[in-house]
Structure formats: structure tokens, C-alpha cells
Amino acid sequence: MKIKINWGTGIVIALVIMISGMTFLVSIAVRQDYSLVEKDYYQKSISYQSKIDKITNANSLKEKVSLTQSTNGLRLKFPNEFQDKLIQGTIQLYSPMSEKNDLNIPLKLDSKLEQLITVQKIPKGRYKVKLDWTVDQKSFFQELEIILE
User: What is the pTM of this model?
Assistant: First the structure.
């Protein structure tokens, strides 16, 4: 027994396939997370010139802030030119994957100008370490990247 499909049936089958595909694509689009990376991105874009000035100050340093990863955690080492000076600032571990993984830590250096950040409770992944600090009313900003494994 042969089944004959005329042109009207072919058009209906093509429309059903097209509508099914569109429905599938719309259902995928509805389930996507469209959250912004930063909530106050507009305000940050306005004040970007001050960040550029901070980056310029950090780039003019003879020695940069170094970041090393060990079994104990992340070790930040600030330049020796800041010895015996008051350093205030913050460390932000920024995760491009999820805002839930972001972490802000106050800057508390020891006498060797070092700070250890324990990473046992921090989820694994790639992070940008954003250092924002002030010394003698001069502001600095430096970004470093690290992969926690």
C-alpha cells in the first residue's frame, strides 16, 4: 500500500515542523539567565576616569603588586616603597561566571607588606583580583587574574 502525500499535506507538515522549532527555541530563550554582571554599571562608567588615573598611578610604580598561589591560599605582596606607610584599600575577587562567587576583603597587610587570602571556601574557577588601595592620599588600582583549582 502506497501512501500518497499531496502538496497541501506537505505544506501542513512543513508548518508543523516550523512551529515546533520556533516553540523549542522560544522555550530555550525563556530559560536563559539575563542578569547583568554588575548592578551599578552606569554609575561605574561615569566614574571611569578616576579608575584610569588609579591604573596610571599603579603602572608608574617601580615594582608591581605580586600575587602567588600556594596550598595555604593566595599571597599578595606589595612593593617595598610602601614600607612604613599607611595603606588602606580593598581586595575584590571577581568571578565573571557568577556574582554569587564574588568576594570583597579589606586590605590588612602584615609588616612584610603581605596578605594571605584563604581560598578553601571559595568556589573553584577563574577570578580577577581587583586591588584598590590608597597611600598618602594617592590612589592605585591593579587587576590580576588567577585560576583556583
Answer: 0.69
